[in-house]
Structure formats: structure tokens, C-alpha cells
């Protein structure tokens, strides 16, 4: 396979590391976080960040039909050798068993590095993953996913409803749709977390809500809007990664010629004399302060702004409901109706005359808003459009809009499924990969 360098257009979340220790908060033994390097025989190995990983053997319900292996190649795009250079390979259904608090939502995160392990090619790694009967991944191929997204490794992250039994079973099952398949995983994290969801209005269906609080979700995107990439080390307790939003802006994604102009807004940063703090309504675990200290606005030209939208475009799976979380913090204005704007999801109005100062109660105070939208299975329904436009109805002082952070979560369907299709690699990528494999075969 081609060993790929990382690019900033992920459908799934990647995690880069820096020099400080990542803090995953827990309170008491019943809130223990499980941070596991799969296939490793060394207890307490540390990654390049100093984060400690435990071995996976004590969590396996059975090690029959499994084996451990080491990667034959270290891709320079990997953030660390630990936990990516070891793997657990499973030739039949295999479960990991965790003792978890019965009243806490769980953040579950996997990392997959599709490469060759002791002559075993990850091309045949196609499998399902479930958690206590909830389907997380279905017919999942890390190899195809990484090839399509030109990424060296893949991360999948989920927020699972509390497990009342206190026992979480995560099961890997090789696909039965082709021969000689196996399952594999490089790391697995199970982290107790606070409840961060509540019932959310479904856009386009007046009076209808989605019971997010009693649903499990997959994190599809997590963006620091107008700001820099925020690594897991700088998250507020859950080791989450916040990506730069610029690749998803409409004209960035489709090229400046899409509308024969480029309108990307401007990045702004909170001035030193404005203090931004977490509040009771927006506690630390919702998002780190760095998300609220930067933003993207439309800029100072009202004539341009009233004729334009700030628009982001995201690839998603059809036939699912999505929760879109908007993070706001106005650190420029002090009064209501200085900056009001409308919020759209797929050209449907999610909010009219949004006013961050009125919502928050003042300057420099974080606030977030959730909206739900359902994606059907028609042409174009695999694209989720997020738009902001200055509100004309209220005649604000500034014709502008602002956004600090954005998260998109997929909600499990009525059948208890979160699994979507693998992305499809382009013909150019497939041709390049075939050529590379031919060269490697000739060299051997």
C-alpha cells in the first residue's frame, strides 16, 4: 500500500500530540479511564507526549484466534510509535470487556493504522465493531478509508449512553462478505464523561425534537473556527482534537472559481483586555477556552456581507440524523443587536436573528446551540451545508456573523446502528496505489 502523509481534510478525526501531558479527568475508581495500546506486551508504555498506555490482554474476554504483531513501517505522519506500531489481529469475533460506571456517558475512541504487520497486509482487514449490541462500524476497511482520505491512520470516536449493567463489551467481528478477512485495532480508549446532550429541535419539523440525551453518537467533525488546530493535549479533559475549519469553507472546498469569487470571512482573536471564562452553563468539559478565544466573522464590509454567506460543507452519511453544535463567544461587542445573523442547515432556517450577546448575557461569555437535521438518501444528501447570513430584519449595527467552534455528531438510527459506508477512493488514487504495490513486488 502507499504510505500516506496527513492532510487537513478529514472525514474522521485524527489526533496529533505535543509536548505536554494529556489530562483525562476521572474522579474516583469507578470513573477510571481505560487507555489501551492493543497488541503491546509492555505495561505503561508512554507515547511521545508522555501519555501512558496499558496493555490490552487483561481486557480480552478470550485471546483465542487472536495474535499480536508489530508494524513493518513507521509512517512519518504518525504522531508517535506508541500505540501505532503494535496491533491486535483477530480472525474471529473477539470481545474486550470493561468495567464502567453505570450512570456515566462513555467516550469510546479507536485508532487504526493500516499497514503491513509481520507480513500480514491490512488490505484484508474488513470488519464490524459493536458495543453492547450497538453497531459502531459495519464492513469497515481502514485500508480503503485511509487510501480515500489520503491519511496514514484513522480515528473513530463515539459518545455512548450509560451502560446500566456496568459492563461494556466491545466486539470486533471479521466481515463475512469476503474470504480471509480479519479485524484489527491499534488502540482503544473508554473514558467516562459528563452528559453533554439534551433533546434538540429537528430543523424543518416544527415542534419535533430528537432525544439526543438517550442516543449514542459518532463524532464526525470537531472544528476550531477561525483559530488554529487544537491538539488533544490542549483539550479540556477528554483528549479531543479540534481541527482548523478552513478546508471546509465553501470556496476553499470547491475552489475560488465555484462562484468566481472567494469569500472566506476573516479570522479574529479575542483582545487581551477581554477575559473569557467557562460558566455554569458552559462548563470546562464542553470545549476548551481556546475554542472561544478565536472566531471567524464576515469582515468589516457591510456591502459585501449582506450579499454573502459564510458557508461550510461537510461530507456525511445519508439516512442519518445529525446534531450540529455551534460554539459562540462574542469578544468584540457589548450590546444586543450590534451583530445579529441567521443560521441555516442545508438551506433550512435553524435560527433567525441569532444574537450571541443576548444569548450569553455579555461580552466574552461562551454559549453553544444545538440543532438537529435529518439527511435523506437522495442525490446530494451526503453533503451537509452550514451557513450564516447577516440578519436584515433587525437592522443591526453591524451586518456580520460570527462562529467560534463547530461540532457535528451522527445519531444512531432506530436499529441501533452508527455504521456508514467506506469512502470511495478516486481512480487516480487507486491507480497510484496499484503502481506502488507493483514496484514493491518487483523489488521483493
From TrEMBL:
One GO term describing the cellular component: membrane
Keywords assigned by UniProt, alphabetized: ATP-binding, Glycoprotein, Kinase, Membrane, Nucleotide-binding, Serine/threonine-protein kinase, Signal, Transferase, Transmembrane, Transmembrane helix
Localization terms from the record: Membrane
One Pfam family in the UniProt entry: Malectin_like
Highest taxon in the source lineage: Eukaryota
Residue span(s) of domain Malectin-like: 36-411
UniProt GO molecular function: ATP binding; protein serine/threonine kinase activity; transmembrane receptor protein tyrosine kinase activity
Signal peptide residues on this chain, from the entry's feature table: 1-26
Topological category with respect to the lipid bilayer: Single-pass type I membrane protein
Protein name (Swiss-Prot/TrEMBL): Malectin-like domain-containing protein
Naturally occurring in which organism (per UniProt): Malus baccata (Siberian crab apple)
Top-level taxonomy: Eukaryota, Viridiplantae, Streptophyta, Embryophyta, Tracheophyta
Amino acid at each position: 500500500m502507499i504510505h500516506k502523509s496527513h492532510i487537513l481534510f478529514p472525514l474522521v478525526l485524527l489526533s496529533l500530540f505535543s509536548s505536554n501531558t494529556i489530562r483525562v479527568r476521572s474522579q474516583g475508581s469507578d470513573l477510571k479511564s481505560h487507555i489501551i495500546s492493543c497488541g503491546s506486551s509492555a505495561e505503561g508504555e508512554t507515547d511521545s507526549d508522555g501519555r501512558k498506555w496499558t496493555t490490552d490482554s487483561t481486557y480480552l474476554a478470550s485471546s483465542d484466534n487472536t495474535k499480536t504483531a508489530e508494524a513493518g513501517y513507521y509512517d512519518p505522519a504518525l504522531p508517535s510509535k506508541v500505540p501505532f506500531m503494535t496491533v491486535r489481529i483477530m480472525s474471529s469475533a473477539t470481545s474486550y470487556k470493561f468495567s464502567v460506571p453505570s450512570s456515566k456517558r462513555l467516550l469510546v475512541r479507536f485508532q487504526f493504522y493500516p499497514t503491513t504487520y509481520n507480513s500480514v497486509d491490512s488490505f484484508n482487514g474488513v470488519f464490524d465493531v459493536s458495543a453492547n449490541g450497538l453497531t459502531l462500524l459495519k464492513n469497515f476497511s481502514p485500508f480503503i478509508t485511509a487510501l480515500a482520505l489520503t491519511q496514514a491512520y484513522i480515528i473513530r470516536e463515539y459518545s455512548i449512553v450509560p451502560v446500566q449493567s456496568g459492563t461494556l463489551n466491545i466486539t470486533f467481528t471479521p466481515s463475512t462478505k469476503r474470504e480471509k478477512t480479519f479485524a484489527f485495532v491499534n488502540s482503544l480508549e473508554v473514558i467516562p464523561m459528563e452528559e453533554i446532550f439534551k433533546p434538540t429541535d429537528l430543523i424543518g419539523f416544527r415542534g419535533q425534537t430528537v432525544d439526543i440525551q438517550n442516543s449514542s453518537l459518532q463524532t464526525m467533525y470537531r472544528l476550531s473556527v477561525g483559530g488554529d488546530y487544537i491538539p488533544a493535549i490542549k483539550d479540556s479533559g477528554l483528549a479531543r482534537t479540534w481541527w482548523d475549519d478552513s478546508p471546509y469553507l465553501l470556496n476553499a472546498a470547491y475552489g475560488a472559481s465555484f462562484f468566481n469569487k472567494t469569500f472566506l470571512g476573516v479570522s479574529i482573536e479575542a483582545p487581551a483586555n477581554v477575559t473569557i471564562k467557562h460558566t455554569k452553563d458552559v462548563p470546562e468539559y464542553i470545549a476548551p477556552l481556546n475554542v472561544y478565544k478565536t472566531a471567524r466573522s464576515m469582515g468589516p464590509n457591510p456591502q459585501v456581507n449582506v450579499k454573502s454567506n459564510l458557508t461550510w460543507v461537510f461530507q456525511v452519511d445519508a439516512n442519518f440524523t445529525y446534531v450540529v453544535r455551534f460554539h459562540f463567544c462574542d469578544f468584540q461587542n457589548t450590546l444586543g443587536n450590534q451583530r445579529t445573523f441567521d443560521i441555516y442547515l442545508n438551506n433550512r432556517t435553524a435560527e433567525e436573528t441569532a444574537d450571541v450577546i443576548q444569548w450569553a448575557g455579555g461580552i466574552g461569555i461562551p454559549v453553544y446551540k444545538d440543532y438537529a437535521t435529518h439527511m435523506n438518501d437522495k442525490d446530494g444528501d451526503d453533503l451537509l451545508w452550514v451557513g450564516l447570513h447577516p440578519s436584515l430584519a433587525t437592522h443591526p449595527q453591524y451586518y456580520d456573523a460570527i462562529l467560534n467552534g463547530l461540532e457535528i455528531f451522527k445519531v444512531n438510527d432506530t436499529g441501533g446502528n452508527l455504521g456508514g459506508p467506506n469512502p470511495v477512493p478516486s481512480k487516480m488514487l487507486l491507480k497510484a496505489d496499484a503502481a506502488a504495490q507493483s514496484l514493491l513486488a518487483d523489488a521483493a
